[in-house]
Amino acid sequence: MVTAIALAPLPTAPAARFAAQVTVSNQGTAPGDAGLLRVFVSQTTRAAPGQPADAKQVVGWLPAGDTRTFAFEDLSAARTAGTHHFRAWIDAGDITRELSEGNNQASRVYAVPDPAAWIQPDFKIVGIVLDPEPLSPGDRFAAWITVQNQGDVPGDAGQLRIWRSCAQRADPSLTGDAEKAVGRLDANEYRTVLFEDLTAPENTGWHHFRAFVDADGRTLEKSEGNNQASRVYPLSGKALAIASGIMLDAIVLDPVPRVVGERFAARVRVSNQGAAPTEAGVLRIERSHQDPLLPGGAVGEQAQAVGALQPGESRTLVFDQLAAPATPGWHLFRGWLETTGPDAGAQSVHAPHSVPYSIAEVRLQAAPHSSGVLLEWNSKPGRSYRVLRSNDLRVGFQPVADVYATPPFNQLLLPHPPSGTLVFYMIEVE
């Protein structure tokens, strides 16, 4: 007889991963072979002999009055919305004659909600970085485009199409200067795509570098109005003449900050790629720069004088003890040079260079432990945290514990996952 069925966690989404514990007992007066225990993730009516099961285990010999519990791991819930019956069947092959054959099956009801029509992926361009910033017609540069799925479910982000100069919103039929496939993005996932060896337009003036995700419109989204973004940049020959070959050609964050307030250093390299000795001016930086343009006189957060550079000479300046911004999300660390031009001491801002990085409020670390998996994360007074786990990112995360802050760090020991199972953990701040 099947005496108990427990589902953990209770499935609440299509194809959600879960485990089941099924308890069987021999309520007869004599021992017997209980045969196979078969389970079905969605079986409303009584299962019939020969019907394929979703999983099965051999129960074997059960003495009279004996009770035994069997665990079924990594099951997948029904893929359709509605009410479903998880069914278990002991002695599924009817190999043993019993006092009653009518109590060999039992079921446990669970519901899979019908997703609302608005639960869709939603792709958005959240970052455009030109590296190095083109200053004159024909300059070579690269573009880093960051895309995010801000929707509720995964989806195919399709083609990412770019134009070096496109002031108006692009139509899906408009041919771009380059394009790449983004691929599938999970809910809230970011992906940065690199376009290399681009050439600035031939005419001077203001230009709009435009990026368009899901450019062919093949995926239904919550909003189709945020698939495009543009980055304004000016082109002229004067900036290069003032710069005289001085370039800011590298920024290295050491280490790359991952959590709010984390300390790091920035190593910025400036070089003279011209043919004559040149005063490189002042190097200015900002940890999080949002304005796509740098007007003359921009101060920045810190500054250092570079000094004179000989042709071919490079110099690395270090900014120590920087703190990551207090706001979680994507940031652009930007450096630029300010030089004095030959005409009446005019100031020129040029050679801007940006590095994108992402920081979180919480940094979660997982380490093996003799009794399971040890999770550790930074915490703040007055906060509470929800710990979530997933065996399949396509299905999503399920909560496993709610924890109050014990600053400056929290620790949580969880049991070992089933052998051979890949497990993902996530922290939510409540």
Describe the structure.
The protein is mainly β. It folds into four domains: 2-112, Immunoglobulins (Immunoglobulin-like); 117-236, Immunoglobulins (Immunoglobulin-like, Sandwich), CATH 2.60.40.10; 239-361, Immunoglobulin-like (Sandwich), CATH 2.60.40; 364-429. 1% of the residues lie in helices and 51% in strands. The protein contains one helix and 33 strands. The protein is elongated, with a radius of gyration of 31 Å. The two termini are 44 Å apart.
Layout of helices and strands:
Layout: E1 2-8, E2 17-25, E3 32-33, E4 36-40, E5 55-58, E6 61-62, E7 67-76, E8 82-90, E9 105-112, E10 123-131, E11 140-149, E12 155-156, E13 159-163, E14 178-181, E15 184-185, E16 190-199, E17 205-212, E18 228-235, H1 238-243, E19 246-254, E20 263-272, E21 278-279, E22 282-286, E23 302-305, E24 308-309, E25 314-323, E26 329-340, E27 347-359, E28 364-369, E29 372-378, E30 384-390, E31 398-404, E32 409-414, E33 424-429
Antiparallel strand pairs: 1-2, 2-7, 3-6, 4-5, 4-8, 8-9, 10-11, 11-16, 12-15, 13-14, 13-17, 17-18, 19-20, 20-25, 21-24, 22-23, 22-26, 26-27, 28-29, 29-32, 30-31, 30-33
State the end-to-end distance.
Answer: 44 Å
Low-confidence stretches: 238-243, 341-348
Helix content: under 10%
Q: Shape from CA axes?
A: elongated
Q: What is the CATH-assigned architecture of the largest domain?
A: Sandwich
CATH homologous superfamily classification of the largest domain: Immunoglobulins
For the residues shown, what is the average pLDDT? 84
CATH structural fold name of the largest domain: Immunoglobulin-like
